[in-house]
Amino acid sequence: MQRANGIQLNPQSGSPQKDISFRSGQIIYGKVNKINPNHTAEVQIGSMKITAALDAPLQTGRKYWLQVQPGEGTIKLKRMASPSGHEAASIKSTVEQLVSRLGMPRNKESLELAQFLLKNQLPVRKDTFQAALEWIKGSEASTQHGLNTVKTMHIQNLPFIKNVFQALLSIEEGKPFHTLLAGLAEQLDKSGESTDTALQIRNLISQQIQPEKNRISSDALQRLITAWASGESTAEKQQSAFRVLLAAGFVDKNITEAEFAESFVQKAQASPLAANPSSRLAEGLTLISQYSRAMKQNNLPLANQALEAFGRLMSGVLNLNDGPNQPNGIMTETGTFTLTAAQGIKRPGDPASDAGKPIGAQGAVPHAPAEQAVRMVKQLIMAYTADDRGPLTLNAKGQSIVQLEALFASIQGVKTISEAKDSLSNMIGALSESGTRANGIAGLAFQDSELLMSLSDWELNSSDFSNGTFVRDFIQKLSKMLGLDMESYLAASFGKEDSAASEELLSLKPLLLKLLNENQPYTVKEAAEQALHRLTAQQLLSSDAGPLQNLVMQIPLAMENHRSDLTIQWSGRKKSDGSIDPSYCRILFYLDLANIKETVIDLQIQNKVIKVTVYNESAEQLKPLLDAFLPVLKHNLEEMGYMLSSVGFEPSADRNNPVSRQLSPLSVHTDSYSGVDLRI
User: Where is this region: Disordered (predicted)?
Assistant: First the structure.
């Protein structure tokens, strides 16, 4: 049976392990293999052998209770007396002896933990035993999962603290990473606590686990709304974008822009996103309402005050330039936008001198209140979703898609937006067909079909998993988004200015840490902790061991309508300067695919000679497909300086291969160094 997350914590029997570190006070149950003449002996603890100094003569071939003594250099062991009067005790009495020596209560949990530690020949201290017992009892996971996690902590020489236990337990429990992230996204949606941190996390998760169809429709929605609201769009493009939004159902059919703007303000003010009155969204909505109400009452001074305040609010967010949606006012030399009074706009036939006159001035043509309100709504939407479009942003980079969906969902309803996204996705998908592309979509004007076609071309060409360069960049991007290098970045940037503004601090891990310090519902914090533990576990399991380096990475993937985790384990030799040696390494890929299901690719490189083995239940059906790709694979590898020795396919159920013998295709453990170039 294979683990859903593709990672197994504990190495299989016979796998190389790190040497377990010993601390004063630890109790071990070991076998004396050999007595040396210098008062030392070879003591075997499980599969590990150590040389230790003894305080008393012992007999070869027998097992003893031994306690680590303080001191440096050679490990010093002291024989402990056996209460039963003999060393060859039964396993039951041995377990009871250990619990008694530790001064722990003799209950089911302590006896079970003691038996597990003895069976796996792991050293014991009272403090670590007590801590492990508390962690296992306090966990919702099964006892066996907790015990396996404790074993991993010992074998990997990891800090024996609760955070490490919880992180590794998240791996042991076996939930896929993408499922944990989806659960967090769901809790964030339910909570209604739309803080900047929550929105940033929701956006990152959306980019990582959203199925391709949903991602395309979400991206297209953002681009459509931008085309409608942006001051850089022509009036014709804005009108075309609004008609497409109408056709897809994002906007209620048979209403005008002015009617939509008025409805937008009313519904947005009542939505949870505008619950904080000091937020810029809430302030902007209030000012638009004040302006519209003042104009209806013919209160021009109050209308001008609302416009001036709105202009000041927008000047700190958008990089305003000349365009159809620029607020009435003046851009200073420093780039700050200032409003003095609401101004008229020059219309065909109006004298040029009218352009600078305030509302109500003699001879000026006032800007239609409804049209002005539409322009203000567009500016507010652009400000609310500002990212790379301007030097100053209302929110952090990369939130625009999720914010737009959340904003429109709170106004139009989640079901309406979901159905509209499906409609937009179908429209884009239809344009990929040659006939539809030539004739356009029925019911849409020619220019509207052209706009949708441009979105279709961009979206459908934005991802290509058959392109190696794209896949490489894609994996690197997702790895960076997860924040797996956060601690390294903080260490490197310590003491430097402006480090807090770096993109590394806008990745998932630091944002999760920030979210846990906010006033969030318990369900949100619980889901955030689970995701954080999975990220921490990957970092803990990536380590150096002498001249070898190990890397474990798990990336959530969304391909069409299928979600999975890509798990990568890389073990390689380091050069003398500490850099990775690409000539000697082993890489294991684990992926659960929609059609061929669980797949493991074992890539072994020795002196730039590559051997590839693919493990899959459908190995026999996959073999014939190799012929079409083998020449290209060989050629491309040769271009990179590598030689392909073989590509083989093996069924996962084959018990003769070292990968499938494990509970999971990827056994995550650290290889030890013992005088050879590379030990796998």
Answer: 1-20
Give dist(CA 456, CA 52) in Å, integer. Answer: 70
Q: Is the pLDDT of residue 148 over 60?
A: yes
pLDDT confidence bin for 459, thresholds 50/70/90: low
Q: What is the pLDDT of residues 174-212, one digit of tens each?
A: 889 999 999 998 898 887 666 778 877 887 887 777 666
177 domain residue, yes or no: no
Q: Token pair of 90, please?
A: 């039964």
Q: Are residues 438 and 293 in the same domain?
A: yes
Q: How far apart are CA 660 and CA 621, in angstroms?
A: 19
Please report which residue ranges of 338-399 form alpha helices under DSSP H.
Answer: 369-384
Same domain, 544 and 572: yes
What's the CA gap between 564 and 556, in Å, rounded?
6
Which residue range forms the structural domain that includes residue 661?
A: 1-11+525-680
Last residue of a domain, one of 104, 128, 155: 155
Residue 539's SS3 state is helix
- Run of H or E residues at 569: strand 562-574
Domain count, the chain: 3
pLDDT tens-digit map of 625-667 = 888 889 999 999 999 999 999 999 998 644 445 444 343 433 4
Q: What is the DSSP letter of 195?
A: -
The residues with which 598 forms a beta bridge, in sequence order, are: 592
Range 148-184 burial, b when 16+ CB lie within 10 A, else e = bbbbbbbbbebebeeebbbbbbbbbbbbbbbbbbbbb
Report CA torsion sign: 135, 140, 142, 148.
negative
| Residue 184 maps to a domain | no
Residues 70 and 4 in one domain: no
The 3-state secondary structure of 573-604 reads EECCCCCEEEEEEEEEEEEEECCCEEEEEEEE
Instruction: Write down which residue in 430, 460, 490 finishes a domain.
Output: 460
* Assigned token pair, 656: 């003769």
Q: What's the number of CA atoms in the CB half-sphere (13 Å) around residue 587?
A: 14
Residue 187 lies in a domain: no
641 phi-psi bin (left φ>0, alpha ψ -120 to 50, beta other): left
Alpha carbon distances (Å) from 410 to 260, 265, 284:
15, 12, 17
Cα–Cα distance list, 216 to 181, 212, 405, 474, 663 (Å): 20, 6, 13, 16, 37
CATH number reported for the structural domain that contains residue 38 in this entry? 2.40.50.140
Question: Are the CB atoms for 196 and 396 separated by under 8 Å?
Answer: yes
Domain membership of residue 634 (yes or no) is yes
pTM above 0.85, yes or no: no
**Residue 150 half-sphere exposure toward CB, CA atoms < 13 A:** 31
